[in-house]
Design goal:
By secondary structure, this protein is of the alpha+beta class. Among the domains are: 110 residues, no CATH class; 161 residues, no CATH class. It is built from 17 helices and 9 strands. Helix 3 packs antiparallel against helix 17 and helix 8 packs across helix 9. It is elongated and about 90 Å long. The two termini are 17 Å apart. The mean pLDDT is 94. This is DUF2851 family protein. It comes from Sediminicola luteus. InterPro entries: DUF2851.
């Protein structure tokens, strides 16, 4: 038994039509259940309840047991003096406000049908083999309502990611171009090297990036040097020696901090995701694009963004994946699927924050861009699809990830329309 069931019962008015009495035998007539409060303070605000013939207006607090009132120290908190009814599953103590007046208590276990408890128990059964509590039922949920839920979750995901962006803006004097660079570095590093690339980006004074953004080779030398890839004296490739010479010069000229403590990893990566390739590609991006931030923030279609990212690693990497070792000839271009990950993880959250800061948030354009992409491929989305849930766009994929990470894994089923529908059936 969890408090969220009590909240569900109250919020969805499962007590309507019942003759309710307090544990002291006083009649209860609910005129208004109030508004659910998700923040600190009583659980429901502005309720109207007639108790023993007297109409009261105030708040409702809920606990599994009456004694939890004291466990949470509400008896000393004046915010709870406005509580007009204490709703509990089991009454095990008399409770009082700070002025020692008694709070009327309703014991819910006397009024809840067994069918509702059975549905609740089934939803949270530990014997389930599905990766979702609602695994056997989710495909039955109304598709139109589910798509609307994913849209809302997508914007919640943008809000979640805006926290890091706002933090970076404060740290870097609200320089949007620098924040874009850091977000791109993190995205180019992917899951394995995202933090290492992020640290590389922070180790380079951004004015240097601005000065070098028309010279991909020199910029590549800085990125490779900070990453610690230019420290092997046994490699004699011309490109390697050129990068090393440039980096040594720039280190003296700009007092660069040297290689990062968190060195990028090659382990478990496919060659096209090797950090050497990705660093050269981001150098090529900044070396070939002027006004990169403006172009990306002003893009109205997915193809405009794809065109910006039509870059490849420098020619040396056509026959290499690492320094000093030749490989089969292949131009190392950025694929659209990789750019989709950059758009989802960096560009759209940044665009969301930037537009909002200017007071011109265009949620339709953000939705259009997110919907135009294919969903990313990962185990979470695959598991949803195995349960019969369709996922047709990047927006829906991001919504499913938000659902899984912030609701499913935290057992917040009664804050999800799917769980609510399951528990509400015939109850």
């Amino acid at each position: 038994m969890r408090e969220d069931l009590l909240h569900f019962i109250w919020k969805y008015k499962k007590l309507l039509g019942q003759d309710l009495i307090t544990v002291d035998g006083e009649s209860i007539i609910i005129k208004d259940f109030g508004r659910h409060n998700q923040l600190a303070g009583p659980d429901f605000f502005n309720a109207q309840i007639k108790i023993a013939g007297q109409l009261w207006a105030g708040n409702v607090e809920m606990h599994l047991r009456s004694s939890d009132w004291y466990a949470h120290h509400h008896e000393t908190d004046e915010k709870y003096n406005t509580v007009i009814l204490h709703v509990v599953w089991e009454d095990d103590a008399r409770i009082f406000r700070t002025d020692n007046t008694k709070v009327p208590t309703l014991q819910l276990k006397d009024y809840i049908p067994q069918s509702l408890l059975d549905s609740y128990s089934e939803l949270f059964s530990k014997k389930r083999t599905s990766f979702l509590n609602c695994g056997g039922n989710i495909k039955e949920f109304d598709d139109f309502k589910f798509k609307n839920w994913l849209e809302r979750l997508y914007f919640e995901r943008l809000e979640t990611r805006s926290v890091l962006i706002e933090q970076l803006l404060k740290e870097h004097n609200h320089d949007w171009e620098q924040v874009l660079f850091l977000l791109l570095m993190r995205s180019f590093g992917t899951k394995i090297n995202g933090e290492a690339f992020f640290e590389i980006g922070k180790a380079i004074p951004f004015p240097i990036i601005r000065k070098l953004n028309n010279d991909a080779v020199v910029l590549e030398s800085v990125l490779m040097g900070i990453a610690g890839f230019l420290e092997d004296d046994s490699i004699l490739d011309d490109h390697y020696l050129t990068l090393k010479k440039e980096y040594n010069y720039l280190t003296v000229k700009h007092s660069l901090a040297g290689s990062t403590l968190l060195k990028p990893d090659f382990f478990k990566l496919r060659p096209h995701n090797f950090p050497t390739i990705r660093l050269s590609q981001i150098a090529a991006l900044y070396g070939s694009q002027e006004h990169l931030f403006s172009k990306l923030m002003e893009a109205k279609t997915i193809n405009e963004i794809y065109n910006v990212f039509k870059v490849a690693a420098s020619p040396y990497w056509t026959t290499h994946f690492t320094f000093g070792k030749e490989s089969k000839k292949q131009v190392k271009k950025l694929s659209n699927s990789f750019v989709d990950l950059i758009i989802v993880n960096a560009l759209l959250p940044l665009k969301f924050c930037y537009d909002r800061s200017k007071g011109k948030l265009d949620s339709t354009n953000i939705m259009d861009l997110a919907t135009a992409m294919r969903p990313e491929e990962n185990s979470v989305i695959s598991n949803f699809q195995d349960l019969g849930v369709s996922c047709d766009s990047g927006m829906e994929g991001q919504g499913l990830l938000q659902l899984y990470n912030f609701f499913c894994t935290k057992n917040k089923c009664l804050q999800c329309p799917v769980g609510i529908s399951i528990l509400g059936r015939n109850n």
